[in-house]
Each structure stands twice: as C-alpha cells, then as structure tokens.
Amino acid sequence: MAVTGPRRVTVMGATGSVGRQTLDVIAQSGGRFVVEALVGGRDVDKLARAARASGARLAVVADPQGYAALGAALAGTGIEVAAGPEAVLDAAGRPAEIVVAAIVGAAGLASTLAAIRRGATVALANKETLVCAGSLVTAACAAHGGRLIPVDSEHSAIFQVFDRSQSDQVEKLILTASGGPFRTRSLADMARATPAEAVAHPNWSMGAKISVDSATMMNKGLEMIEAFHLFPVREDQIEVVVHPQSIVHSMVAYADGSVLAQLGTPDMRTPIAVALSWPQRMPLEGPRLDLRSNLSLTFEPADLERFPSLKLARDVLRAGGALPTVLNAANEVAVAAFLASRIGFLDIARVVEQTLARSTARAPSSIAEVEAIDAEARRGAEASLPTSGRAA
Ligand SMILES: NC(=O)c1ccc[n+]([C@@H]2O[C@H](COP(=O)([O-])OP(=O)(O)OC[C@H]3O[C@@H](n4cnc5c(N)ncnc54)[C@H](OP(=O)(O)O)[C@@H]3O)[C@@H](O)[C@H]2O)c1
Q: How many CB atoms lie within 10 A of CB 65?
C-alpha cells in the first residue's frame, strides 16, 4: 500500500548511537517522516539539541532530575517537555505510527510494550526486550496488532530475505558476527583487556554496552534469542558464523540449497531506513559497497572456548523458561561492572554463568514476573562480582 503524507516517528533512546542515526535518516528523508517525540535517558544537552534540530513536538528525559534543565534548554521553542519514567511511557503512547525502540537494556521493555499495546509499528533496536520477555512481547503484538520490524543489522538482513509465505522451506538462519575487537586475541590477552580496548569495535561505532557485548560475543548470543522470537524457526535452525568484514549482514538458507544474503557497508542507517520506510524503500546517502575493490569475504566458526558467552546464550535459548531473563540481567550488571573497571573482561561470562547456575526462577507469565526475575538476577549478579578489581 502506498504511504501518503509524512509518518510520525517517536524515538526512544534518541541521544544514543541508534537514536542519533535514526534522526539522521529522518533528516535525509525529504519529509517522509516527522518527529513526534524524543526520549533520552540523562543527557539533557544532547536531547535538547536533537529536539530543536528535528522539530520534535515533545522531548522527554527519563531522569526526573533533568526536567528543569531540559525546560530551560527548550524555553521559547514551543517543544513540550517532560521527565521521569511515567513520561517515558506517555511518550511511547503518543500517536506516532512508528516508535523506534533504541533505549539500551531491559530499561527499554516497558516503553516498547506501551507502543505495541496501542498497535504501533516498533522499529526494534533494543534486542534486550526480546531476550528478557520475548514470548510476552510477541504475544502482545498478536493481541494488539503491534508490529516489530528489526533494526539490528543481522535481523534486518534476515527480514529482507526471509520468505514468510514459505517459512517451512527455510532450513536455517545464519547470523554473521564480526568477532569483535578480540577475535584473534588469546585468553591471556583478553584477561588483561581494558574497557577502552573492548569498546573499540573494528567495524561498527556503537554504544558502550553493545560494544562490550560484541567483544564477549554475548551480542551474538542475544541476537540468536532475538532471532528466535522474530522469525518462525526452531532454536536448532539458528547458526552463527564469524565474518570479520561485516559486509554480509546475515543469511537465510532454504531447503533447495539456496542461501540468500543481504550485503552492505557496516552502516546502521541502512537497516534503520529499511525499518522506517518498510514496506517501501527510501533513498539514503552514504558509502556504497564496491565489489570491484578486491573485497574478500571470509567466514569461520566461532570459538566457544574463548567466547563462552555465546555458549551460555545457546544453552539458555535451548532451556528457555526464566533463564533468558536471568542471562540478560546478569550480563547488564557484569558489563556495567567491567566498564566501571570493577571486574576483568573474562569475569563478565563468569558472573553470568554463576548467576544462571544459582537461579531457581520459573518461567514468567506476566511482565511483572519478568521484572521480578530481572531484579532478583541483578541482585544475584551483584553478589557474584569478584571483589579483586580488574584481575580476572
Ligand atoms: N549502536 C548500534 O549500532 C546498535 C546496533 C544494533 C542494535 N543496537 C541496540 O540498540 C540499543 C541502543 O544501543 P546504542 O548503541 O544506541 O546505545 P547507546 O548509544 O548507549 O544509547 C542508549 C540510549 O538509551 C538511553 N537510555 C539509557 N537508559 C535509559 C532509561 N532508563 N530510560 C530511557 N532512556 C535510557 C540513553 O540516554 P542517555 O545517553 O541520554 O542517558 C541513550 O539515548 C541497544 O539495545 C543495542 O543492543 C545498537
């Protein structure tokens, strides 16, 4: 169906890496999209600048203490200002056709659900939402007519080549992983890795948390769980392969032997544009893939010994129940502790493993139960943090 008139977009996590790139895509869209609301966490200056530049109607800072500063920064612009967790949910509830879910972590769950429950299209970057509450989120989509369109580049690739009319002919999904900054490092080297080294991704410029997740390869583990909830496949049909160039963004293998891939430069604005403009496409400026430039595309298996987080995520995906929620919460705690130099790089997977091993939580049947499991897992992970500083 042809889209008439501009579509209204609300961006949750507007001050982050995906949020800023979303606003860049909207600015390039020639009026296809207008901004309804922008939501940030704490960074009032960035939020106010983005609200002015995009002509947003509403700017919301999740941190209630940011209210006065945001009001002062936007005085005289006519942009509405609000703050606090309730205002974040209200922003998701505003009548925008598309809500870009780009808050980092389980903190994005409630607002993503609020958008789904009013039948919005959610352009989903926030993979943690599907990891910690996948079945409940997809059930809410079915009940309220909400739609999830993936923004994660791997899932966007699969979304673009997955034939939903013949999903029984899909043999497997092949998620590509760059391998992150430590792809060729020894375990001894990784034990000494600093936060600065871990966030220095070779191909993608991203927020700190997902960058560390890429370094541990937990990111690919979270993405396996995300793929399981986004596409009609079994757990054993989801494969991971390391592809250091990040050109092939993922693939779908069919029963007749065909493997369909989506390729492109490593630029998040492409999957963002795909999600915003779907089912159409939009022109976007940016670097283009030049296949004549002696480009070599290589693929190798992932090393589960050096990247145990990937195995933990696979085990959790197989086991199901409360464990994906526990895995996600423990990982968020461990990554934050690593970024604060409280623990070593290899401790991240250890903390997650120990928290999973101690968990007795049962499968959640409501969002309140997800939140309770998440909170308990965070306490468990905090208790598992080694106290010896950065020595891993
Ligand atoms: N970056 C990428 O290329 C990429 C690719 C694929 C998927 N993703 C996924 O997209 C999500 C965002 O990643 P990112 O790299 O953009 O992260 P980021 O740069 O760290 O940005 C996170 C955003 O979330 C906001 N935020 C944090 N806590 C919040 C809270 N409690 N309430 C409301 N807002 C909050 C932050 O606000 P303040 O900064 O103002 O505090 C910021 O706007 C993650 O789930 C990530 O896995 C990212």
A: 11
- Ligand 1 centroid–CA 356 distance in Å is 25
> What domains can you pick out in the chain, each with its CATH number?
7-151 (3.40.50.720), 156-265+287-302 (no CATH), 320-392 (1.10.1740.10)
The residue whose CA has the least distance to atom 45 of ligand 1 is 126
Q: What is the pTM of this model?
A: 0.97
Q: Is the pLDDT of residue 388 over 70?
A: no
Interval between CA 241 and ligand 1 midpoint (Å): 25
The tens digit of pLDDT for each residue in 222-234 reads 999 999 999 999 9
Cα 41 off chain centre by: 16
Q: Rounded to an integer, what distance in angstroms lies between the CA atom of residue 182 and that of residue 242?
A: 12
Q: Give the integer Cα–Cα distance in Å for 25 and 276.
A: 9
Q: First and final CA of the chain: distance in angstroms?
A: 55
16 Cβ closer than 6 Å to some ligand 1 atom:
yes
CA–CA separation, 233 and 164 (whole Å): 11
Residue 272, both tokens: 């963002």
Instruction: Tell me the pLDDT tens digit for each residue of 266-291.
Output: 999 999 999 999 999 999 999 999 99
| CA–CA distance, 325 with 132 (Å, rounded to integer) | 4
Residue from 385, 326, 334, 329 nearest 359 by CA: 326
Closest CA to 109 of 361, 366, 383: 366
Comparing CA positions, the residue from 142, 153, 282, 294 lying closest to residue 214 is 153
Identify the H or E element spanning 111. Answer: helix 109-117
* 207 ligand 1 Cβ < 6 A: yes
For residue 223, give the nearest of 280, 302, 299, 277 by alpha carbon.
302
Please tell me if the CB atom of residue 88 comes closer than 6 angstroms to any atom of ligand 1.
yes
Report the distance separating Cα 111 and Cα 101, nearest Å. 8
Residue 294 CA to ligand 1 center (angstroms) comes to 35
Spatial distance between the Cα atoms of 103 and 93, rounded to a whole number of angstroms: 16
Q: For residues 123 and 150, what is the distance between their CA atoms, to the nearest angstrom?
A: 6
